[in-house]
Amino acid sequence: MKAVESGPPNGSGAAAVLAAGIGAFALAVLAIAVGKIAWLTQVMVFYKPTGPLSGVTTSAILIWLAAWMILNARWRGRNVAAARVSAAAFVLLGVSLLLTFPPFADLF
Amino acid sequence: MEISERGLWTLIHGMGFGALFLLTCSGAILELWWGYGKDSAPAAAKQESFFRVYLGTMAALAWLTVFTGAYVIYPWYRAAPPPETAQLTGFPQYLLQSSPGTSAWHSLGMEWKEHVAWLAPISMTMAFAVFLQYGRSLRGHPQLRNAVLGFVLVSFVSAGIAGFFGAMIDKTAPVQGGAIFRLAEGQSR
User: Fold this and answer.
1) Is B187 inside a domain boundary?
2) What pLDDT digit, counting tens, does each position of B47-96 carry?
3) Is residue A23 part of a domain?
4) Hey, is the C-beta of A47 within 8 angstroms of any chain B C-beta?
5) Is A7 within the bounds of a domain?
6) Closest-CA residue in chain A for B130?
7) Range of the structural domain that residue A95 is part of
8) Do B150 and A97 touch (CB under 8 A)?
């Protein structure tokens, strides 16, 4: 067995992982919501030529970055339950992948 | 041999940024799998620095792909034709929706592509940020390394889905128009 460097605590890394899952989930939920709620469709037009896609993606990016900043501020310099955090992030990512698929999105 | 301005942008977006991103995915997946497992030999400093640049370049390519797609090409794709226009070749979304044989390229293909593609830059930026901070010490954090590997795999899948539908949609209803660039002069027979 080779020596393994433990390096810095896993908190910052776990924050980045979970925030990415949250960002992906936010994107999928917003994409579905825009297709179902008329007023939200109008609100999400940040750039007219691109339509509501501009608002959906910009909002999801902002939610992702905000989640990353908040989680990083809370977990930086600490060790957290990385296995559980990763599992939660993968569930969010997997659900997002499914929800972006139109036949699944149409179920809502 | 000539190409339209819009055609050139689809090339830059798909064959340039997008295809290059897909090509680099296999390298990142292999390096994370073989080089940063618990039992892997520690990476040399030079190798580690190279991989940092590699992942950073992948993240940049993923962002360039989605931004050129959403803000340069998509407006041309979704542009509405003037009322009573019969000729829909300059309006790809409407051209696809005009026939039952092609409408699913929009309702399924484009609707999926335009959203799923964004999972790639989010995932790759996370992978880059985690590697930037942990580098070779990722070997000591197997759960983090597995998470990064998993997200890179998902970014590959999402970019693959987007790339496939992008290519197929552009074959069926190409985004064309704008200035014409003449690349070479041919001879007529």
Assistant:
1) no
2) 899 999 999 999 999 999 999 999 999 999 999 999 888 889 889 999 99
3) yes
4) yes
5) no
6) A13
7) 15-105
8) no
